[in-house]
Design a protein that fits this description.
eight-stranded mixed beta sheet; single chain; 2 domains; 46% helix; alpha/beta; Spore Coat Polysaccharide Biosynthesis Protein SpsA, Chain A; 8 strands
Length: 285
Amino acid sequence: MRVAVVVTVKNEEADILKFLRAIEFQRRKPDLLVLTVADSSDKTTQIILDWAALTTLKTEIDYVDGNRSVGRNLGIQHARRLGAEIVVFTNVCEPLAYWLDFLVTPIEDGLADAVGGSWILDTRSSREDAMGLLTQFSREQLDETRISALNMAVDAPVFDDIGMFDPELDTSEDSEFVRRMVDHSHWVFVEPDAVVVWRPATLTLRGAAKVYFQFAKTDRKAGIAKGQYLMTGLVYALLTLGTWLGFRARKVIADERLFSEVPFALMAAFVLDWARLVGYAAGHS
């Protein structure tokens, strides 16, 4: 089956070349790479153009004026016009060499309509290790409802059935898309061995609070994850604060290497919870 990798790009000067080389050196190379490029204030676009002039991979570049959902939808349309039967989504990261092979094989074998992979965090300090444990799912926690467009392959007919990403959503667009797949009884498969190395914005408290606020605002708009926000609000209303924060920071507390980061983790859990609650309330307006 013909496989296209679609990635939206903006202001990725530091990491874009590493990503492109990782795609180029996959054990299984994609039939097509579609880059939807937003207006960047750095040298991202020029780096892409220079690389595309030299690579042997078939590469298409689209310029997008819109959010990530709009960019992904443009990439899907372009890939399908050129014959893609499986569309793979990722961000600017570093896919391991066997990533694409592991990700698309279950679809080619008729075992799944969509496949989600896992990720390793590119952390560079104990503080970032703690933030990673607080903000990211572990490999063991992944299930069909938690796959992400950071690392996801979709059989093209799925788009004909349920549509593409909601262009009104700036964030959480992949969560809403996955929910529609599950609601329409598409078979979603988790392949933990399809691994990308990723450095998310949530490795700092400020970055994580900003992301949590925006995701919660969009979750409210999309009508998803209502139970999670209700539970968090009830916990704070019932003042079971110490027990709850201990539960939220449990992965950090359980890691002996991060003992010195436990006070920070408890404080960060509190800040992130309130970023989510305020964001969810803001999503109503």
